[in-house]
Write a structure and sequence with these properties.
Rit1_N; alpha/beta; 8% strand; tRNA adenosine(64)-2'-O-ribosylphosphate transferase activity; 47% helix; single chain; elongated; five-stranded parallel β-sheet
């Protein structure tokens, strides 16, 4: 257990004592308490600020902060849980890598297209992507600062290009023939086509729209690579037909964290873009060893982005198993947390149903 690591130090030098204390701060009890603390913020933000928006957990870190709907607290309002339009916790996932947004390593991955995220946003008027960072100073991981904004712009340009090509292929003669054979269904299709054509013409290719903390130099370097990224999308042969039919306003990112004071009004249907709300679950530390308290008054060392790098602390526990058994885990207290987790993992691996990912 974490407490044993500290007791075993004994009379060893102060350096080893500090190392043991630091290890305890990042032990499994503090990590799980920090996750539960941040997940409560995510849940409330999604329900209160972004109702109706589907929620995606960015794998793997983000999955710890998005509780599956059936695993939410039993005393939650039943009507809210049953509301199909509520942006309550779901099991939707996506995969945007922070390394694709690292400085001088910017890239667009056609193998991680995440088209389902864009399609959901287009259909529902927007969506939320949840992730976190272990950085003690940054509010957003690079996946949110750069990877996703670049992805959104590549898809915007790809859709606009596909629409222009489709319009050119139809030609004036085909459009005239369709108009002569008019009925309600044909008229509806023609109106949808006209709207898509207008959207393609209106798109100005001025992105990606990056957050203010990205430097002008980096911003210019990323924009210089956009044509190459679009070429990567084009050569991949990705099917953008659904997006071409449903995306009426270009995708654009909006950044939200626990430090956000002026919340964006992204559910306004008059917005000129389709919002991708990038919700960072964790808060940066105000000081080393910062502590938080649970609703019951229990104190724990806060770990920002605790869900990251789960191999180093989770002892084989999955995010899904945590949400299903969190009451048992926390009931064991700081000293018994690791043993409780080990028992759950052992039961799961042995087919005992402790929860699967």
């Amino acid at each position: 257990a974490d407490a044993d690591d500290i007791r075993d130090v004994g009379v060893q030098n102060i350096y080893k004592v500090v190392r043991a204390l630091k290890k305890d701060d990042h032990g499994i009890h503090n990590c799980l308490r920090s996750i539960a603390h941040d997940a409560a913020f995510v849940r409330e933000a999604c329900r209160a600020r972004f109702p109706g928006f589907p929620v995606f957990a960015n794998l793997r870190c983000g999955a710890w902060y998005v509780a599956p709907r059936e695993d939410e607290d039993e005393d939650e309002d039943d009507e809210a849980n049953e509301d199909a339009d509520a942006a309550a916790m779901t099991t939707r996932t996506c995969y945007f890598k922070s390394t694709d947004g690292h400085n001088n390593n910017w890239s667009f991955s056609a193998t991680r297209l995440n088209a389902h995220v864009a399609e959901a946003a287009a259909t529902r008027g927007g969506c939320v992507v949840v992730d976190a960072t272990r950085s003690a100073t940054k509010r957003f991981p690079d996946s949110m600062s750069k990877t996703i904004p670049v992805w959104a712009e590549v898809l915007n340009r790809g859709v606009a290009e596909s629409r222009r090509l489709a319009r050119d292929a139809r030609g004036d003669e085909a459009e005239g023939t369709a108009a002569a054979d008019d009925d309600d269904a044909t008229s509806e299709r023609r109106d949808a086509t006209a709207a898509a054509d207008a959207a393609a013409d209106d798109y100005d290719d001025d992105g990606p729209h990056l957050p203010l903390w990205v430097s002008d130099v980096e911003r210019a370097s990323i924009r210089a690579k956009m044509d190459d990224f679009v070429a990567t999308l084009r050569s991949s042969g990705a099917d953008l037909s659904t997006l071409c039919e449903t995306l009426r306003r270009p995708l654009r990112c909006v950044w939200v964290s626990s430090e956000t004071r002026s919340w964006p009004k992204v559910t306004d249907a008059s917005l000129p873009f389709t919002p991708i709300v990038l919700l960072s679950a964790s808060a940066p530390l105000c000081g080393r060893g910062e502590r938080r308290s649970t609703a019951e008054g229990d104190s724990f060392a806060y770990v920002p982005g605790a869900g990251d790098d789960e191999e180093s602390w989770a002892r084989g526990l999955t995010a899904r198993a945590f949400w299903r058994r969190r009451r048992d885990i926390f009931a064991a207290g700081p000293g018994g947390c690791a043993r409780a987790v080990d028992a759950i993992v052992e039961a799961t691996e042995g087919g005992g149903g402790g929860g699967s990912s």
